[in-house]
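Two entries, shown back to back:
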Amino acid sequence: MARCDEGYRCEVCGRDVEAVTDSDLYLRFVLGEVPLDVLHTQPERHLRCNPALAQFIADPGFEPVACPGPFDKVALDPAYVNDEERRVTRGWRRLQAIPTLGLAIPEYPLTVTPEDD
């Protein structure tokens, strides 16, 4: 990923976010939380640099992230946590597959399926 020749800098740690698969911004885009027309204007972070979202990735391929404080999922409603883990994990899996799917950026977001309702 490169914004011109400078790359995308993580607004939290200051290092480059070198791959779309490690991008909090692109995960939020895949999830439908960031519209395409503002994608290029939004700040970037590594997934792990946004623990409020990353804590909901529940996949053996992703080392769990803790989010200490009031937004820690252990303090949230279990039904909400279950729904978020399903939604965010599904988005993360899509994000991991993007480099091999041959999609244009507008095709990255997930489509809603009946089980998502």
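entry 2 starts here
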Amino acid sequence: MPAAPATGSTARPPLTRFGLGTAAVGRPGYITLGRDVDLPAERTVEALRRRTHDLLDAAYAAGVRYFDTARSYGRAEEFVGEWLATRPEVATEVTVGSKWGYTYTADWRASGVPVHEVKEHTAEVFDRQIKETRALLGTHLDIYLVHSVTPDSPALTDPALHERLAGLAAEGVRVGLSTSGPAQADTVRAALEVSVGGRPLFAAVQSTWNLLEPSAGPALAAAAEAGWLVVVKEGMANGRLADRNATGPDTAALRALAARTGASCDALALAAVAAQPWADLVLSGAATAGQLASNLAAAELDLTPADLDDLSVLAEPAEAYWHTRASLPWA
């Protein structure tokens, strides 16, 4: 077990706009590019537990106070829960969000697995997974999202599920959804209309927005206007905007800005997300301490409207972006 981090009295002031996600370190396989060199060669449970705890320590010491996990991230909820249980002085200061709706099925294998996770947005799955999440996170569950909602999801239409989610909200947990796919904007707008007993059901959303895939922006702005917490995931496009991968003509504008400013491509990509007025929190998906430090350098960058305009040329059609994402290998 790694040593406990510095307490709140000695850690850096909170970075209120940035959080740490655990998708890349809670299981041996994921789709982030370059992950084959980022993680230990032997991806045992204990090795990834240590890596997760070390990243959580580093993030907290750097000022991060928001941590994101999910039922389908292998054993990530377990790792986060253990970290919080051994650091009571930290646990009182941080916000933890998790997600339900996918069941992890890879059995701790990185490759050669037909299906790594199975999605099912039913009341029965919610009943099972909220118990599992509570068992691992205890009282440290502040936000609970339906994982990867698309316009056809029962999460938008099932009254029985809505009643359960409303019950969880009544207990003080902020209920929301994450989105994926080229119709993210349609999903968010449909979710804004969902109510129980005349009151809006959802109060948070976690969506993909990055320089390559900005299509959800207007809908996320509407969610922010409605008072929702807006969290942005995949700000680096699963590693496509990292320095080691941003090498093609499609990212030339990003490399040019990096050369002009001396900032890394990943920091600039995340700073572009943070520059969106509707974005409350921007997640780092770092798998190493070096990546985390580089990601969090975004907090020191102040992109100008001209910089953002230069970077806007990176945007791809949403369908093309999600087609490419679907083809990324689990490694």
